[in-house]
Design a protein that fits this description.
19% helix; alpha+beta; two-stranded antiparallel sheet; 2 helices
């Protein structure tokens, strides 16, 4: 299981297991070890899917917000 750990208002760290414990350790002073955690996550291990717009409101802090949803078909506009 992977966790997205918030460390800035819009940037997150994707990590798991011991790496998560290292990141969350308030006594961590090893700059090299911390820097190793900031390497890009392998995109081949990620997946992309639509989620509910409920995720756009900070009060909705629940697992349901990250579950995949079916996209509603949108009617074409006047010029497309």
């Amino acid at each position: 299981m992977f966790f997205s750990v918030l460390y800035h208002c819009r940037l997150s760290l994707l990590t798991s297991g011991m790496r998560l414990l290292i990141w969350l350790d308030p006594g961590m002073r090893d700059v090299a070890a911390a820097s190793d955690l900031l390497k890009p996550y392998d995109a081949r291990l990620m997946r992309c899917y639509p989620v509910s717009t409920r995720i756009n409101h900070v009060a909705n802090d629940e697992e349901e917000c990250s579950r995949p949803v079916e996209l509603a078909e949108v009617q074409g506009g006047l010029f497309f």
